[in-house]
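Give me structure tokens for this 119-residue protein.
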Amino acid sequence: MITLNIQAVLVWLLLIFLIVATGFLIVVLKNLVDTVKKTNKILDDTTVVTTIVAEKTEEVEETMDNLISVANKFSGAVNGKEGLITSLVSISKGAFSTANVVKKSKKNCKRRKVKKVVK
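Here you go.
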């Protein structure tokens, strides 16, 4: 005849529960570490993209300032406030500035290859 002590059974059940809970905790922590690594890669990629966007914004802002200046000078020439040659020079400066931004953009796109970070 086997006699079971209720206290011993409860202790064994508690130990089994703790072992299973520890296994689940290990799996959750492993997944958490993988998630943190992927998040760090995404944040690094975001830093790269933000840097690129900031550079492009500065280039575009300079070009826009040149184009606004050209438009103002051209409208001044149309209204007779400025000479035709000065207006043509301003227009050519704006066109060259825009062309330089496009060239730099194409060159930077070829030089910087954005890699896929998250798989």
